[in-house]
């Protein structure tokens, strides 16, 4: 279950592979620098990314460890990017490429790759339905690879707790992973659904204090009190009939709440791969 949740972060973070060369007409060639995979703009502590996704364009908004991904319409052909999300906003911009290239480091790697330098100009207007931010600009910067802050890295050993709602039609998952005693836990959560004609996934990944999670001495139970935007608490004990209980939930800036514990959830605790935020 936690792997699906981890996959939601990695999939929504992924841009064009670093060895893909896309020119203004969409051609590929090993000798060409990397063209942008989309655009980005920051305002009021939040970041908006617009890039190609499966069957359309993705609007990705990030703020304080919360990521909202929306599937919209549009196209990016290496020169012009258009994207729209009903009731939320539109993007109509052209990439103004400069006659030079530059090196950019690939996140979570020591490798640097050549990219085409330039700026997006035109019109960008977007109001995040989840309340994470509002964006309006006549210019935006290009993006080439996934942002490092968006990537969760697997490695080492750790204790992993995961829970998933098996009844609701809208997927809801919660997870926590620690790498050892007194280590800070990494919290992950994901909720999905449809609203106003478009699909969305809201994901959270953030580190909590070591005192926000406590495992039972026998190793078959855990209690969590994760920080905001979570609220409440959750308790798991494998021997209890309702193993995953509590008031734990996720609260978005627009006031929407999603329950993340209760009798409709199945849960487990096990030894597995450690998780950390890539730097």
The N- to C-terminal Cα distance equals 24 Å
Beta-sheet strand percentage? over 45%
What fraction, in percent, of the residue positions are helical?
under 10%
* Chain-averaged pLDDT: 82
Q: Give the H and E element order.
A: HEEEEEEEEEEEEEEEEEEEE
Q: Quick one: overall form?
A: globular
Low-confidence runs: 1-6, 8-22, 25-30
How many structural domains in the coordinates? 2
Number of strands: 20
Indicate the structural class. mainly beta
Strand order of the largest sheet: 1-2-3-4-5-6-7-8
Largest sheet: 8 strands, antiparallel, barrel
Rg for CA atoms: 20 Å
The helix count comes to 1
Write structural notes for this entry:
- The chain has 279 residues and is mainly beta.
- The chain folds into two domains: 17-144, no CATH class; 152-277.
- It has one helix at residues 2-13; strands at residues 38-43, 46-53, 56-63, 66-76, 80-85, 89-105, 112-127, 134-143, 152-165, 172-178, 186-195, 198-207, 213-215, 221-224, 230-231, 234-237, 244-246, 249-251, 257-259, 265-277.
- The strands form three sheets. It has an eight-stranded antiparallel barrel. It has a four-stranded antiparallel sheet with strand order 13-14-16-17, with no helix packed on it.
- β10 and β11 form a beta hairpin.
- It is globular, with a radius of gyration of 20 Å.
Give structural attributes.
20 strands; 57% strand; 1 helix; 279 residues; mainly beta; 4-stranded antiparallel β-sheet; disordered N terminus
